[in-house]
Design brief:
This protein is α+β, with helices and mostly antiparallel strands and about 260 residues long. The protein has ten helices and seven strands. Strands 2-1-7-6 form a four-stranded mixed β-sheet. Strands 3-4-5 form a three-stranded antiparallel β-sheet, with helices on one face. The C terminus is likely disordered. Its main location: membrane. It is found in: Cell membrane. May be a cell surface adhesion protein. It is a lipid-anchor; GPI-anchor.
């Protein structure tokens, strides 16, 4: 009985020693896998900036005449959709109000609604172009506009000045109103006039009459009238004195001639 107890105690001690050894622990419970490090995910691309073309043109310029035509023909919606719903963007050439004022009012009143719409579409490229890109773009002349073929424009870079040429006008880009992709808006000092809509160069508006000088008056001032009167009186008295002197000289000559005749007689 005593031998059995010793054998049981010995067996328990052997089992405890086996469970406490590192080898047995590794086989019974494998180590946890090391965490896998993943590369950081790229940041999402920023959404394109929304540009309200109507608001932009209403506060810049002044471009009120061009904006009124865009809204009247709903071309503003076409430009807006191209600006914010496409990746290629848009480039718009906007004539100033003075450019429209330089033309006769009948120039655009004689156009049909479709022709007027085409004229406005003629002032835009269906793609974004920065000023730096115009130099390379000029080698591709003629360039198609938003109005489609055959409504094209020719671009020239003259010592850094960009000119946009149509059939009847060659305006210069006066300034950059907005140029952040996908929208570019450039101001022009003339209206682009295509040959397909105008058979000849539209007449210019008559030059405005010069404004009268401030403070000037057509009526003579009293002082001026008085001065004129004095001057006139002086002139009249001088003339009268001259007339009297002339008469006296003539009488003297007549008397001298009569005396000579009497002596000869």
């Amino acid at each position: 009985m005593m031998g059995s107890s010793k054998a049981a105690i010995f067996a328990t001690a052997v089992l405890a020693a086996l469970f406490s050894t590192p080898a047995f622990a590794q086989t019974s419970s494998p180590p946890a896998p090391a965490p896998v490090s993943l590369p950081p995910s790229p940041a999402p691309a920023p959404a394109p900036h929304y540009v309200d073309l109507a608001e932009l043109l209403s506060v810049a310029g002044p471009f009120h005449t061009f904006l009124n035509y865009l809204e009247k023909t709903n071309v503003i919606e076409t430009f807006q959709s191209q600006a914010n719903n496409t990746k290629v963007g848009i480039t718009v050439f906007v004539p100033k109000d003075s450019a429209f004022a330089a033309l006769k009012k009948s120039t655009f009143s004689n156009l049909t609604s479709d022709q007027l719409k085409t004229l406005l579409l003629y002032h835009a490229f269906p793609m974004f172009y920065s000023l730096a890109e115009f130099k390379n773009l000029s080698s591709l002349n003629p360039v198609n506009t938003f109005a489609g073929s055959p409504y094209t424009l020719n671009l020239t870079d003259d010592m850094g000045s960009i000119y946009v040429q149509s059939m009847w006008s060659r305006p210069k880009i006066a300034s950059s109103v907005y140029a952040t992709k996908p929208v570019a808006v450039y101001a022009l000092n003339k209206v682009l006039l295509p040959m397909q809509l105008f058979s000849k160069d539209p007449p210019l508006a008559p030059a405005p009459a010069p404004a009268p000088e401030s403070g000037a008056s057509d009526a003579p001032s009293p002082a001026a009238g008085k001065a004129d009167g004095l001057a006139g009186g002086k002139g009249d008295s001088t003339s009268a004195a001259y007339s009297v002197g002339a008469v006296s000289v003539a009488n003297s000559l007549l008397l001298a001639a009569a005396g000579c005749l009497m002596l000869l007689w």
